[in-house]
Amino acid sequence: CGVFGIYHDNKAASGVYMGLHALQHRGQEGAGIAASDGTHLRCYKGKGLLTDVFRPEDLEPLTGNNSIGHVRYGTAGGDEIENVQPIVARSGIGSIAVVHNGQIVNSLELKEELEEKGHIFHGSSDSEIILHLIQGRKGSLLEKIKAACVRLDGAYTFLILTEKNMYAIRDKNGLRPLALGRCGDGYCISSETCAFDMVDAEYIRDVEPGEILKLSARGLQSTFYTEERRQNICAMEYIYFARPDSNIEGLNVHMMRKKTGTILAGKDAELNADMVVGVPDSSLSAAIGYSEASGLPYEMGLIKNRYVGRTFIQPTQSQRDMGVRLKLSANTSVVAGKKIVLVDDSLVRGTTSRRIVRMLKEAGAGEVHVRIASPQILYPCFYGVDTSTREELISSRMSLEELQSFLHADTLKFLCVEDLQEAYGETGCCFACFDGRYATDLYSYGRKK
Ligand code: 5GP
Ligand code: SF4
Ligand code: MG
Questions:
Q1: Which CATH number goes with the domain that contains 331?
Q2: Residues 6 or more apart from 238 whose CB is under 8 A from it?
Q3: pLDDT score, position 75
Q4: What does the Swiss-Prot or TrEMBL cofactor note state (predicted)?
Q5: Residue 416 pLDDT > 80
Q6: Among the four 170, 188, 270, 297, which has the fewest Cβ within 10 Å?
Q7: Which of 230, 261, 291 marks a domain boundary?
Q8: Do 224 and 266 fall into the same domain?
Q9: Is 0.90 surpassed by the pTM of this model?
Q10: Is any ligand 1 atom within 6 A of the Cβ of residue 386?
């Protein structure tokens, strides 16, 4: 998912709309915006792409200087409208809207506990839990939020909007990205820095793991909900999820992908090929890195149809298969008779690579050498990226040789975790889907592992 907020800037909701537009790649199943004018908090949301959900007149009632928004990529909970965010509660302490990116790993346990106490959940997603944890506690809202965060385990960034204030929260492992910017005389907060340009905001810094920012009439106030903090940003953000023009923890996503392409090329000193082809769009940076390092020309061997969105995010396998077919075509005149290095960013279920190797061969390619700019994905993610169950992860079912023949590739290579560490330097990352070393306890999810 993607979250975006603006505090203290006029037309906050239209700014949030712009920001969400730049975050659309982070989720296509739903979109919503809440805004507050100091007295009233209003919300509008719906299923689908941002541009499908919002007509210009839907933004008009969302008046006020403070606003938060969300684009949804469902990993926990179904696709019912109740799970589309912001989630708004009208409680004794006033109205509260919340947006969430990530996944709470102890959500089942917390829900059971809360339901036993009489709480009634509106939807099936895990994002609502924070609202329930806040209720019924004593003290200021900031104190309540802190106490709630201590109970939540897993990956989360939250933006919380009340009638007057806004809060931004990042989990103590910093699993999902969140950045703070200056926007006019106010602030903006975004899952990715690429959205700052949309509202002419200036990047200030990343929100730190375990940090809670309170934005109020008193300005910006920073506190931490725990002493145990680690930087453990999701490596898949760099590999696939984030936009190449975003910087995460100070590192530019495109440059990091290029580095992984360079490292792949370093393993291929002996390979005799004619050209490098990337799988648009997510692997283009890595393919450029490979091309520069190897001296092989980068070619447009695959063309992407602009009118198809991210295929992986589609919920069923048949939709994903159809998606790849609709999305990508081989450029026959370029690839016929050629030996091709095909670079993709990741291999999850194998849908994309298998289909593309076939496409290139049908277009007359002589050899196709598949190079994946990440390690083999062997373990599921429980932190908000839908790499799904272990059975679906093709690398956990097949040996490298089996995989190579399944893909009909002439050769096949991956990076290893050490290669990624080399690329990312000092930045602490989560690599759990590659090495199974999860940053948190997995609670009931652990049984499915
Ligand atoms: P596969 O087709 O092997 O199942 O998935 C890999 C392809 O899907 C790559 O082209 C990658 O860019 C894309 N991909 C999409 N979404 C995700 C996601 O959430 N995780 C990952 N790893 N890859 C995705
Ligand atoms: Fe990211 Fe993988 Fe860690 Fe999930 S398990 S947070 S996808 S690195
Ligand atoms: Mg891709």
A1: 3.40.50.2020
A2: 248, 251, 253, 256, 257, 424, 429
A3: 64
A4: Binds 1 Mg(2+) ion per subunit. Binds 1 [4Fe-4S] cluster per subunit.
A5: yes
A6: 270
A7: 230
A8: no
A9: yes
A10: yes
Domain extent at residue 266:
252-448
HSE, CB side, 13 Å, CA atoms: give it for residue 429.
Answer: 26
**91-95, 179-183, 274-278, 334-338: which has the minimum mean pLDDT?**
91-95
To test the ligand 1 pocket, which listed residue (348, 386, 390, 414) has its Cβ within 8 A of the most ligand atoms?
Answer: 348
Cis bond before residue 268 (omega within 30° of 0) = no
Residues 101 and 208 in one domain: yes
41: tokens are 């908090």
**Which residues share a beta bridge with 428?**
none
Nearest CA to ligand 2 atom 6: 234
Strands 94-104 and 87-91: antiparallel
Instruction: Choose, from 1, 43, 188, 429, the residue flagged as catalytic.
Output: 1
Beta strand spans in 109-175 (E): 154-162, 166-170
Query: Is 183 annotated to bind ligand?
Result: no
Residue 79 lies in a domain: yes
Q: Is 416 tagged catalytic?
A: no
Question: How do residues 45-91 score in pLDDT, each as one tens digit?
Answer: 999 999 999 999 999 999 999 999 999 987 666 677 878 999 999 87
Report if residue 373 sits inside a domain: yes
Strands 186-190 vs 2-7: parallel, antiparallel or unpaired: antiparallel
List pLDDT tens digits, range 83-130: 899 999 987 778 999 999 999 999 999 999 999 998 888 888 788 899
pLDDT digits (tens, 9 = 90+) for 238-279: 999 999 999 999 999 999 999 999 999 999 999 999 999 999
Q: What whole-number distance in Å separates Cα of residue 48 and Cα of residue 232?
A: 31
| Residue 200 in marked binding region | no
Grade residue 310 by pLDDT with cuts at 50, 70 and 90: low
Q: Are residues 322 and 389 in the same domain?
A: yes
Which of 72, 320, 352 to mutate for ligand 1's pocket (most ligand atoms within 8 Å of CB)? 352
Q: What is the pLDDT of residue 449?
A: 52
Does 311 reside within a domain?
Answer: yes
Closest atom of ligand 1 relative to the 374 alpha carbon: 22
Which CATH number do you get for residue 25? 3.60.20.10
- Atom 20 of ligand 1, nearest CA residue: 387
381 is in an annotated binding site: yes
Distance separating alpha carbons of residues 388 and 348, to the nearest angstrom: 9
Structural domain contains residue 409: yes
Residues 181 and 306 in one domain: no
